[in-house]
Amino acid sequence: MEIDKTVKYISRLAKQLKNEDSFKATIMKKLKSDLESSINFRLEDITNEQNDEATYADLLQVNDAAEALVNNSVFSTDGSTLEADRDLPIEFAAINVGYVNINYGEDPKAEFDSALSFYPDPKIQEIDSRVLSDVNSMSALRHVMEMEYLADKMEAFKADTIKLGFIDGNFYPNFALSHINNNTLKQFLIKRLKVVAEKVISLAKNKAYIISYNSSPKSVHITSKMDSKISSDFRDSEIFNELLEDNQRSAVFNEISKDTDEKSLTPVSFIYLNNSYEIAKIEFIKDTIDKDAMGKIHTLVQSQVQKGNGYPKILIESHEQAVISQSDRKSISILTERELNANNLKYTTTQKYQSKQSRNI
Amino acid sequence: MKDNKIIGEIIEVSSRSAIAQSYELYDCPPIGSVVKCGDDAEDIYGVITNIETRSIDPGRRPNPKGPGFAEVNELYKSNPEITHLMKTEFNIVFLGYKHENTTTISIPPTPPRIFSFISTLPEDEMINIFSDEGLVKFIVNSNMELKDDVIIMIISKYLNSKKTKTEEIGSFTSQLVGALPDQITRITNIIQNLNLQEK
């Protein structure tokens, strides 16, 4: 590869970014006064906590965290996929969901667990061999499994303290769902998401809340609806980085659904918060968290972010629990070969795969 | 720590020594303790020569959790996941084995199997091993880490289990003189550093 050419290309991109940043900084300097001068500007298809159409006045609202909570329990699941290898004579995929629960306060303890599933699974007809190598299908399936596992574990956990479950990224796997071409699978996953959403609503009635946590999100829910003179290609996080002080959160916003398959899901609300390291987006099922509970959740999120030096500790640990490492992948490959040989099946990969392994001159 | 309590399993083993991992973080007898590496076929005895506690994942080094804690216990309470993410391993150097009720001070003819249980030693078995005059010589001639420290700790531990110590000190001194000829300074250092407690 020609490194000189690459360096020149990256250097040009960096200069371009510097110019854009300088332009954005100029707009940001007067953001607050621009918003205050058009306080009634309506954000189309965005509603506030009162279900009224949101305005710039809602963007200017800030909230602080509640007082520290001594006794609390946090939960998280995260998943990892072993994609089907088309070079192997048997085609299968695996999803490993890692789970962690940490209880703070008078009875401090933790629980680590994981669940490994293999596909195709004769009990689940919707996930056939064509699905296994489709990244979006497997990603959406993994997300659904993470949510189900988290909700089940939290449901089984009995304690009087506040319970907060974290999902990594967005609340629903909207991007992956919207890119699934197999409609049967898509409907199957949406149905499972609707079931888990009902469970999340039920849990919230017992002080067990489930939120998703998105680190430095690229979302444009708000900025795409703002006056183009102000927003001009900003992300929501850039706007809220200017509006929120350290440890402050925004008001609650809801995006009005468009008529697509994935928008038929139980609606979610979102807030942004400045966790003193970065802007994060938190999503949750609409009307499951009131202002008082949100104050407490804000406190727990901040505490987790502090413990994780910038990212919630519970999400770090569930990710570690989920990861299918390179050595695990190698072991699976060796086991596959051994099993095939034990069954007197000739183990042959494609010639392309073999050529990549040997790399002879 | 209770006698005969199974505290962990061997995770790496060779003819002379083994590495074991305790079931619970820090649940390992102190250096110099004699433990039993139970195998179904025979009991193998070894002495703990080194204890290590570290991350279960070699790729994840622990980061300090403070400042802000007044006590270490407080730090542990605030981070209950620590005990799941760390492990305690300890090195055992084999001292002898029991076959058909006869204890022999030597490396075992075959090392214990991987995942053999490690248990603490009942006092009668400990006395039986220490009554063998070849023990001190065997340790002195071994290539274990912290050799003199281990000798000091192992003798101290044994003597502290006895009501009267004078006679045994004399016996161990004789054994040391036999095992370390012309090394008076070293022997004196070992004897002076014994940590003896009154019963």
Using brief descriptors, characterize the structure shown:
heterodimer; A: 361 residues; archaeoglobus fulgidus dsm 4304 fold; 2 domains; two-stranded antiparallel sheet; 13 helices; globular; B: 199 residues; alpha+beta; 7 helices
Q: How would you characterize this protein structure?
A:
The complex is a heterodimer of chains A (361) and B (199). Chain A is of the alpha+beta class. Chain A starts with a helix and ends with a helix. Chain A is built from 13 helices and 12 strands. With 199 residues, chain B is an alpha+beta fold. Helices cover 32% and strands 27% of the residues of chain B. In chain B, strands 1-2-5-4-3-7 form a 6-stranded antiparallel beta barrel. The model of chain B has no long low-confidence stretch (mean pLDDT 87). At the A-B interface, strand 5, strand 6 and helix 11 of A face helix 1 and helix 2 of B.
Task: Write the SSE topology.
The complex is a heterodimer of chains A (361) and B (199).
Chain A: H1 3-29, H2 31-37, E1 42-48, E2 53-55, H3 56-59, E3 63-64, E4 72-82, E5 93-104, E6 109-119, H4 129-132, H5 135-156, E7 162-168, H6 174-178, H7 183-204, E8 208-215, H8 228-231, H9 236-243, E9 248-249, E10 253-255, E11 268-274, E12 279-285, H10 291-307, H11 313-322, H12 326-342, H13 351-358
Helix pairs in contact in A: 5-7
Chain B: E1 6-13, E2 17-22, E3 34-38, E4 43-55, H1 72-78, H2 82-85, E5 86-99, E6 102-105, E7 117-120, H3 123-130, H4 134-141, H5 147-160, H6 166-179, H7 184-192
Antiparallel strand pairs in B: 1-2, 1-7, 2-5, 3-4, 3-7, 4-5, 5-6
Helix pairs in contact in B: 4-6
